């Protein structure tokens, strides 16, 4: 649970021009993000903390928000397969635990729905987020969407493997010479 001023703050709606979905600016964004772990937000649809979502899992207008310290157990991984969207919080751009959560959800548990990065999301992180399985990124308000789109296309070749390309560049090159 966050320990800063967001504990019981009003739900945050990401402006549509700050949401990137599937490599483009989103045409719409109805989802808000609520960090309040005790009260459901009035605005719907909403990403809410995991425990609150579990209490109201029959509400189709709610989806789980995973905080960076969430332990992604096999039971939780299986439970999340039934939801269309999951948000993962980045409380600070220096906190990389969200990348691990995303990669585990995609690779180990086979999650295929929307995986949205929320919180302190900067342009510099987008390429790495995409490589870890995020297909939606809610930029911090001070980030430029046009710059973000260019950043996503900045690299044409990636040396390491990622959730889409499972082999490293040297392995791909070796495979073409054999």
Structure overview:
The protein is of the alpha/beta class. Helices cover 28% and strands 19% of the residues. It is built from six helices and nine strands. A nine-stranded mixed β-sheet has the order 1-4-5-6-7-8-9-2-3. The radius of gyration is 17 Å and the shape is globular. The N and C termini lie far apart (52 Å). The N terminus is likely disordered.
Percent range for β-strand residues: 15-25%
Care to count the β-strands? 9
**SSE string:** EEEEEHEHEHEHEHH
- What's the pLDDT, averaged over the residues? 83
**How far from one another are the termini?**
52 Å
Could you list the spans in which at least 5 consecutive residues all have pLDDT below 50? 1-6
Give the overall shape, derived from the CA principal axes: globular
Going by helix content, strand content and strand pairing, the class is alpha/beta
Kindly provide the radius of gyration, computed on alpha-carbon positions and rounded to a whole number of angstroms: 17 Å
Please give the count of helices: 6
> What topology, given as strand order, has the largest sheet?
1-4-5-6-7-8-9-2-3
Question: Which descriptors apply to this entry?
Answer:
alpha/beta, 178 residues, disordered N terminus, 6 helices, 9 strands
């Amino acid at each position: 649970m966050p320990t800063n001023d967001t504990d019981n703050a009003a739900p945050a709606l990401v402006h549509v021009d700050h949401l990137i979905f599937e490599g483009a600016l989103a045409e719409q964004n109805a989802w808000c993000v609520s960090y309040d772990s005790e009260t459901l937000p009035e605005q719907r649809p909403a990403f809410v903390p995991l425990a609150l979502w579990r209490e109201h899992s029959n509400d189709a207008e709610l989806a789980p928000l995973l905080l960076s310290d969430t332990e992604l157990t096999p039971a939780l991984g299986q439970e999340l397969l039934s939801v269309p969207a999951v948000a993962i919080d980045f409380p600070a751009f220096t906190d990389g635990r969200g990348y691990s959560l995303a990669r585990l959800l995609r690779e180990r548990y086979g999650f295929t729905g929307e995986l949205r990065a929320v919180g302190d999301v900067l342009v510099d992180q987008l390429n790495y987020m995409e490589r870890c399985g995020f297909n939606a990124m809610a930029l911090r308000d001070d980030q430029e969407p046009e710059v973000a789109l260019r950043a996503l296309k900045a690299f044409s070749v990636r040396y390491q493997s990622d959730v889409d390309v499972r082999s490293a560049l040297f392995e791909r090159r070796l495979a073409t010479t054999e």
